[in-house]
Write a structure and sequence with these properties.
- The complex is a heterodimer of chains A (113) and B (116).
- Chain A has 113 residues and is mainly beta.
- Helices cover 0% and strands 49% of the residues of chain A.
- Chain B is mainly β and 116 residues long.
- Chain B is built from no helices and 12 strands.
- In chain B, strands 2, 5, 6, 10, 11 and 12 form a 6-stranded mixed β-sheet that branches. A 4-stranded antiparallel β-sheet of chain B has the order 3-9-8-7, with no helix packed on it.
- Chain B is globular.
- Classes of the chains: A mainly beta (113), B mainly beta (116).
């Protein structure tokens, strides 16, 4: 596709459930980023991949959060045992290289009940 | 650490007027990049404009220009001849060259409403 795509667009989970959020970056983009955006706030960095290597995971809020990009293309952000405070929009972005412009997907809105 | 401050939670402007959205930043990196993104109600972050800290001229992209004042650490976005479709959230962001070299640090955003 022409842009970054994310699925699902909306996810409702019961507290304690595991969820998996998918990101398809722009074809050929080496770098991939995940951000978390709470209601009324700016996005906050979670983690960064260059190809399949996770080079920075300093923003992951707890060990319940896990991200992977096994073949250097599609990435999955997994949240285990979801909590209400995990409710947010999860944005994925990709760039041609690490210092290039980051292009964002439409986000996945996660609601934990 | 890097920090972005956007002091205007909301702005209301008449259609066709120019509008300036404020952004100040703080960083110890000698080299950095500044970005503006637009986020309409659909949720996608749309890249608008980029300014490098060593760029000699202020960046411009169509109706968007960035008023970069390095000594004051400000990077205000100017939208000329505003249109109804400009109504959205606007985020200022920065990326350092050394600290957290790849990630973007965002401000709180400004909600811009264009009135007909």
């Amino acid at each position: 596709g022409a842009g970054v795509s994310q699925s699902p667009r909306y996810k409702v989970a019961k507290r304690g459930q595991d969820v998996a959020l998918r990101c398809d970056p722009i074809s050929g983009h080496v770098s991939l980023f995940w951000y978390q955006q709470a209601l009324g706030q700016g996005p906050e960095f979670l983690t960064y991949f260059q190809n399949e290597a996770q080079l920075d995971k300093s923003g992951l809020p707890s060990d319940r959060f896990f991200a992977e990009r096994p073949e250097g293309s599609v990435s999955t952000l997994k949240i285990q045992r979801t909590q209400q405070e995990d409710s947010a929009v999860y944005l994925c972005a990709s760039s041609l290289a690490s210092r290039e412009i980051q292009f964002f997907g439409p986000g996945t809105r996660l609601t934990v009940l | 650490a890097q920090k972005i401050t956007q002091t205007q939670p909301g702005m209301f402007v008449q259609e066709k007027e120019a509008v300036t959205l404020d952004c100040t930043y703080d960083t110890s990196d000698p080299s950095y990049g500044l970005f503006w993104y637009k986020q309409p109600s659909s949720g996608e972050m749309i890249f608008l404009i980029y300014q490098g800290s060593y760029d000699q001229q202020n960046a411009t992209e169509g109706r968007y220009s960035l008023n970069f004042q390095k000594a004051r650490k400000s990077a205000n976005l100017v939208i000329s001849a505003s249109q109804l479709g400009d109504s959205a959230m606007y985020f200022c962001a920065m990326r350092g060259r050394i600290q957290g070299a790849q990630k973007l640090v965002f401000g709180q955003g400004t909600r811009l409403t264009i009135n007909p």
